[in-house]
Amino acid sequence: MAVTFRQLTPAFGAEVSGVDIAEGVSNADFAEIARLFNDYSVLVFRGQRIDNAQQIAFSKRFGPLEGTVRSNVGAGSEIAVISNVDPETDKILPVEDWRNVYNSGNEMWHTDSSFKRVPATASLLSGREVPPEEGETEFATGRAAWDDLEDALKEELEDLVAIHDFAYSRGLIRSDLVDEAQRRETPPVPQAVIRRNPANGRRNIYAGAHASHIRGRDVEESRAFLRSLTERIVQECYTYTHRWRQGDLVMWDNRCCLHRGRPWNKGKYRRVMHRTTVAGIGPTAA
Ligand code: OGA
Ligand code: MN
Hints:
By secondary structure, the chain is an alpha+beta fold. The chain has a single domain (4-278), classed as Double-stranded beta-helix, CATH 3.60.130.10. The protein has helices at residues 27-40, 52-60, 98-103, 142-147, 151-157, 166-171, 180-185, 219-233, and strands spanning 4-7, 14-17, 42-45, 80-83, 122-129, 137-141, 161-164, 189-192, 194-196, 203-205, 211-214, 239-242, 249-253, 257-261, 272-278. Mean pLDDT is 95; it is low at 71-75. The chain binds N-oxalylglycine (OGA) and manganese (II) ion. N-oxalylglycine is lined by residues 82, 106, 112, 123, 125, 137, 259, 261, 273, 275.
């Protein structure tokens, strides 16, 4: 089988064929997948019925994995389970269960673990059980948004540092979702506002829900400014909507794109997603 791909939107995204992750991927095929990842940012692999061990093994070829944050639903060490199903009873959770509310944070445009000192490079999300309608995942590329910026704004942004804060972003949902222990575990961290991919030189805006304010600037004003940057990234022409089929594996580049989950009928349909997260290689700002 040769690795082939089809571009998903003019701006980014590729559906990759000729890959069987459960079977194992040759070094040559992996090199092509890694190139596509750097160039297209979101990769869709259809029909991948994989178990956790196979997902972890494939993910680790991109680098060491992150552990999950403490209060994730059904937190394991290397697999984050994002789901509306109670792991104890295997029944759909009540819609108002705090775990559903907590996971609804994923419905804001964000990039994974930008609240960590070293933010994630990639996430791989496996659709184990998907609802028959809705519950899509949307992606937006920060590269096109950068390319389109006025020159003066490009210059202004180049050296700015944003403070990303998990307590801030989860607090937007409900003030009691992050307790003191978790606050201590995830203190605010600095992140570059503009990032550059070392493999191909492409620059992008890096913002999203965890970005609280700009270091050294007025909090409220710079918060509004960061929101305006996120708005530039998520313009419809720069987005891709993934409609899930069971067995899809979708991988995205957290360094340069934002994503969000879309709502679905949580009281009616099961949605069980398993995520692995490839750790970053270092801080983005001093
Ligand atoms: C994630 C996430 C969105 C979704 O797993 O990081 O944001 O559609 N998921 O489940
Ligand atoms: Mn996410």
